Structures are given as C-alpha cells and as structure tokens.
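Give me the fold.
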Amino acid sequence: MANREGRDIAPFVASRRGRVIIVAAIALTTVYLAYRVTTLGTGWLLLLSTPLLIVELLAFAQLLLLTVQAWRIPAEQAIPPLDDSPVCDIVIDAVGADERMLERTLIGVGSVALRGRVFVVDQDGGSSLRDMADAFGAIHVADTTPDRSRAHLLSDHVHSELFVWLDAGQVPMPDLLTHTIGRFRDPSVAVCQTAVGLLNADSLVHIQRGRDEDALQREVLAPGLDRFGAAPWFGSASIVRRAAIEDIDQIDDVPADKPVSVEQTLVRLHARGWKSVYAREQLVRTIAPDTLDDYLRQRRDRAVAALGVFRTPENPLRAQSLSPAQRMAHLGRASMFGAGVRQLVVVSILVVALVSGRLPFEAPLAPVVALWAPSLVLGAIARKHLARGSMKPGDWIRHAWRTLGADLAGLAAVAARRTTYAAESGPARTGLRTLGRLRILTAAVIALDIALLARAATLFDTDLLPAFSAGERVAVLGFGLVALVPMVDVLQLVVTRRQRRRSFRLQVALDIELGDTQARTVDLATSGVGVLMGFSPAVGTTTSIRLRLPAIDGADRWIHGSAIVRAASADPTGLVRVGLEFAHLSQ
C-alpha cells in the first residue's frame, strides 16, 4: 500500500535481510547490556556509569516497543459503508480559535457527505465566532463547563449515533464519512481516528519537503496498533460512537487540559472492552505549525497528553482490564517523548568524561566498543527498516534534540500536575533569536564544544586535563565530534530557516463564475483560487468573479469581486488550470 506522498508502506518489514537485522540488533544489544551491568564500577564512577546504563536500557525498550508495533502492518483494505449509513453530526471545537480558522473548517464541512447537524462549541456565548457559525448555518454552543472531559462535553450536544470531532482549523475531505463509517460495523468500535494530512509541505514539522516527523506515527505505528484495536486517539479528526462515551463514567477532578482528558477517556474505553481503530487515508487536513513558538507549544502539549495520563487514576500501568497491546500502545507513545532527554544525558556524561579523563565504565575499552558499536549500528538500521521510509537514521537524533526543551517542559508540567501553557508574547523569532527558545540545546552545544577543544588541546599540553590513554582519547574525541554534528545541524536549520509560504491552499470544489463563464474551483487560499476551465484566459487580465461558499443549511453564500489571472496551464483532465489572485472581494 502507498501513502499520500507516494511511498510504499509494506505490510511486513520489507525484506528477509531487514528482519534478520532487527533480530540481530535485539540479540546483540541484549548481550551488550548484560555485559555493561558488570562494568558499572564503584564510588564516583558508579554515579557516572549508572545513568548511562539506564539511558541505554530505555533506548533498548523503545526499540522493542517499536518492533512489536511495526513488525507487521495489516494490508489496507477498502471498508464498505454500512448498509444503512446514518447521517452524523459534526462538532467543531472552536475554543481558542479565530474566525479564519473556523471559516476554513466550515467551508470543508459544507461538502461532507452524510453530514447531519453542525455544532460550533466555544467558550464565549457572544463571540464573533457565533456570527461566523450563523453565517454558515451551524449551531453555536457556549462551553460553560470547561472542567469536563472534552469527549463528554462535545457528545452532549449531538443526538446522532456517530459524530465527527473536529478542531477549528481542520478541513475535512468530502468523503470523510463515506470512507470511515464502515469501521463501525464492528459494534465494539468506539472511535476511529483518521490520519491528518498537512496543507503546508515546508513547515517546522517537516524533516524535509514531503516527509514530516509525524509520518512514523501516521503511516506505521498507528496502523500497526489498529490490528490490536488499540489505535491512538488524539480527540479531534476522529469519528466517535456516542454510546461508547455514555458507557464510561464521567471523569471528575482532573485538569481541564483537553489532550489529558482524551488519554484518560481512551483508557476507560479500553478497560470497558471498546476498541479504537485507525483510518490511514488522510481525510482531514490542517496547517502544521510554522513558527518555532507554535511548534514547541504543540510538542509540549503532546508530551503532556501522553505522559499526564500516568499521573491519573487511569494510569495504563495500573488500570484494570487492559490488554497487553493496549498498555503497550500507551507506553510506546510515552517513550517517544524521552528521546531528547536520553541524548542530553549521553552528552552530559560525554562532557564529564572529556574533562575528567575517566570513561563511564570500568572495563577495557576494546571489548566495550566491540559490543557497543555493532549494536548501535544494527539498532539504527533496524529502526530504518521498521520505519519503512518514514524516518531515516539521522532523523531520530535530530528530532530528539529539536524537541528536547518542549519535552522537558512537558515532563515538568506533568510532575507539577500543571497542564496550562503560558504562550510567550511578541513576534515570531527568526535567525539567531531562535537560540533563546532552544536554550538547553544551545548550552549543550557550547559545553560539548568547550570540552572537545580542551581535550584536543591536551595533544599539545598533556598536563592540561587528566590523561586518557592514547586509544581512549581518540575514541572519546571521535564520538564527541559525531555527537556534535546533529546538534549543530538542528541549530543551523532553525536559525537559517525562513517560512517559504504565507498562504496555504485548501483542496475544495466550489461553484465560481468568471464573468459569464461557469467553472469549478480546485483549491482555495486567502490570496486566490485555482480553477479548471475549458479555455485559457490571457495572463494578467482582470475578471469579475462570483464564488459560492457552501452554507450548511443549504443556502447560498456568494462572494463578489474581481481577480487577476496569474497563471494558466494544461491539466491532465484536458481542461485548463487557471490561477487567480483576488483583487477585491465583498459579500
């Protein structure tokens, strides 16, 4: 099967060679860690070697979890709709949203098949979002009980058997329900989480154009957990069975942070025998964070969501009636937020070793390296095979460093039982100012640079620092340089990055009139629109336009104005694709 980016995602680890490497990596790492336990030493050395061993054990545990989740992904099959497909209400969570975000969602909702009533839930009963909801024929609801679970609160407003949960800003595709509602043929399915595609292909979550850091979760891990009925549920961009929410007790006395409430609700659903499933087709689109502050805030909230549940009565390690696969799903997601912390511990120990002249183990260097180096290389190759092209070996480390500060903030918030986030005010940081938002990484780079330079100086002044043997000095300096490369790479990428796109296009088919010509749009942005036509107008000419936005109540909402023809090219359909830039618009 292939994802929307065109990569082939094999149901099994692609080759026999890949499976052999994965098994060999696990076996060799087990031998290495067993040997490492015997090299801890005593006294001050024990304080240095024990944290490193713990980090290595946690990394090994994550590899095991990844292997279980990603070893086999069931082949994707077309799910026929229900024989009597019901209409589904749609609930848009607009708390904290602005008018533009809500409008984007309502335009998409207007074209969804099998759509029932549409509700917009907001905290302010007299807000401008009410006017936007009224203009599209949606029902505006004031959220007066913010301490309740979001799942319970949103389900209170619907009467349909199934309902769609969207966040303002998310754009559903027209076939959202027709392609997912068949999953509820199984009466034990409580929720169906859909894959969320990104409208911008060059955001901060993109490792490179066309490959983003959520691809592993979206293309491999979530489909792998789907076969256990333990797929992740993130709340929004999902279809929910209302009876399942009513079946579980309402969660009381918990923080009002939405992601934590969803995790707790999912544990309760699993404990009651309900399943969570996953739809791999990207049936909902959204805009990924494109400023560093927004990116770190999103990452921090995700860390709180995944880790906060372990501080509640719904702790997956203690909750009754969960299957091993369901516990593994929660542990696997939580483990993803510790990679940066592990990298920080390793670099901290490396700095101490460079300065002190003591290796973090009590054993000859040769046997340790003989076991550690092959296990490290095999582990990296094993992760590459398991990721099936969604992540490359270097991506893991760079991603861990970039998210370190946000993950630590999430850990601190969970430890203090805080789930609110105070957004930093001011303009988005660019250039060298971004270093102020990556303080821990910046400090780690400086500390490692100083330690490497000081140790390199001992080549000329042997009395400058406590001495390694010649082989140990070369090995530690080499590993330090290797560790420094991805750290500097992350800083360089964030410091030099510039947003390449200011306007993001939605794929949407709307009626449009260009002068006396009827046409159909293919995409829409705040700055312009793409249209398919039977002829090619002259580039640079201005034309009058009338654009119909679909209101939910069936009424027509026409936008009038003028637009400039900016591009025209042949389309594979045989028509002409025309790009128009809005010049003047009015309602």
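The first strand starts at residue 88 and ends at 93.
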